[in-house]
Amino acid sequence: MKLKKDFKNTIMDSMVVTGIGLGCFYWVCESFMYFFLEPEANFFQYLLGPDIFQIWTRILVLCLLAIFGSHVQYTYNKRKADGDALRESEEKYRTILESIEEGYFETDLEGNLTFFSNPFCKIIGYPRSQLIGVNTRRYTTPETAKKMNRITEKLLDSGMTENITSYDVIRPDGTKVMLELSFSLLENPGEGPSGFKGVLRDVSVRKKTEKEKHKLETQLQQAQKMESIGTLAGGIAHDFNNILMGIQGNASLMLLKIESEHPNYEKIKNIETYVQNGTTLTKQLLGFARRGKYLVKATDLNEIIDKSSALFARTKKEIRVITNLHESIWTVEVDRGQIEQVLLNLYVNAWQAMIDGGDLYLRTENVILDRSYVKPYTVEPGQYVKISITDTGVGIDKTTQQRIFEPFFTTKEMGRGTGLGLASVYGIIKSHGGYINVYSELNRGNDFHYLPAGVG
């Protein structure tokens, strides 16, 4: 086959010589014919012709054949060059399409695929054999298919390229992938629109990264906000405590100078009671402000959880407490009394979320947190003990989650809470160099908090 093709190219490349050769062959044939018709003629008459007319006729035929051969050769070479250029352009175009990460495709006006690149197959997760002639709406979500119907109608009217930032595709394994699509008309000159063309980009990784970045920024902002509130709360608590001590001192002096039968005795005693209540609030504020860590020593958190949960279970019969405590839990350097306060506050918070009773799950485990994980919480990486407290309550909405650790913020009705329980939990955990995270879903609220592991 290659030999025939090379022979053909050789013949076409030498078409001028071929034309001249054919002209000479014609000349020789004419001479032989004249030889048989006029045997008595001489050699020059055989060679040139019997008269001047025959001579010029042969020369004209020779020239015509040479010109014809030259034209055929020129036409062939031009078409061959155009064909080579077209194949080279197509190959270059295909190479570019296959080398970019985006997937290119073309469809007819009905949305059936007529051309697509290999990256296109990779992005949507289907093999090439399953996509030939397939309508694009078959691998998109119903919402995306409806949206594309509207966009194609708009595109046919305006002719302007449409950029779709949310183009959802369902892969063969059932997973949904979020893509971006640049969509435009495919037009033939003088014939109008013949279909559509588009470029797909897989943005699922980018979207996930942006979501994680936003989450980290939100956590960092929340930590900074709580830090500022803690500083403010600590200052207010100290000033308020000084005022209370002044009231307490004066009330005590008045009681020393009057008898119990005095009509104002009970009122002054009430003042002392109110002062004590106010002192309790200031202690909680100081706990939130991380200024109340006192007796720190190596402690087994499993022991604290066992005792505190048993006490809570005896008082709240409608709550079933389920523990899953790590046997070889690391010891931590904590104030035992404050950690007990943290746990009881979280138990009570869970109980209040389970109106008709429910399950309270308590779990401990050893974890090692790297720098990238703890960065939003402004704590040091390393070994931590993780305490997970999970309830089956009504859950917490996203808006409330952002404020539950703020002092005096409460969702309870007037008179049922001060809004300092979770605020003090936050402050105590932070004062021990740990942090607290809250996750919540409908009918399932999870509280995770971490304490740094020390040498006990």
In terms of DSSP E residues, the strand content is: 15-25%
Backbone shape: rod-shaped
Terminal CA distance reads 87 Å
The topology string of helices and strands comes to HHHHEEHHEEEHHEHEEHEHEHHEE
CATH superfamily of the largest domain: Histidine kinase-like ATPase, C-terminal domain
CATH fold-level topology of the largest domain: Heat Shock Protein 90
What is the β-strand count?
12
What's the structural domain tally? 4
* Alpha carbon gyration radius: 46 Å
Mean pLDDT: 76
What is the count of helical runs? 13
Computed structural class: alpha+beta
For the largest beta sheet, what order do the strands appear in spatially? 2-1-5-4-3
| Main β sheet profile | 5 strands, antiparallel
Residues in helix, % = 40-55%
Name of the CATH class of the largest domain: Alpha Beta
Q: Which CATH architecture of the largest domain?
A: 2-Layer Sandwich
Low-confidence stretches: none
Could you walk me through the main structural features you see in this protein, from its secondary elements to its overall organization?
With 456 residues, the protein is an alpha+beta fold. The chain folds into four domains: 2-97; 101-202, Beta-Lactamase (2-Layer Sandwich); 211-291; 293-456, 2-Layer Sandwich (Heat Shock Protein 90), CATH 3.30.565.10. 53% of the residues lie in helices and 21% in strands. It has helices at residues 2-13, 15-37, 43-48, 52-99, 118-124, 142-158, 204-256, 265-288, 301-315, 336-353, 371-374, 398-401, 421-431, and strands at residues 103-108, 113-116, 162-170, 176-188, 192-202, 296-299, 319-324, 332-335, 358-369, 382-391, 435-441, 444-452. The strands form three sheets. The protein has a five-stranded antiparallel β-sheet with strand order 2-1-5-4-3. The protein has a five-stranded mixed β-sheet with strand order 7-9-10-12-11. The chain has a two-stranded antiparallel sheet with strand order 6-8. Strand 1 (103-108) and strand 2 form a beta hairpin. The protein starts with a helix and ends with a strand. The mean pLDDT is 76.
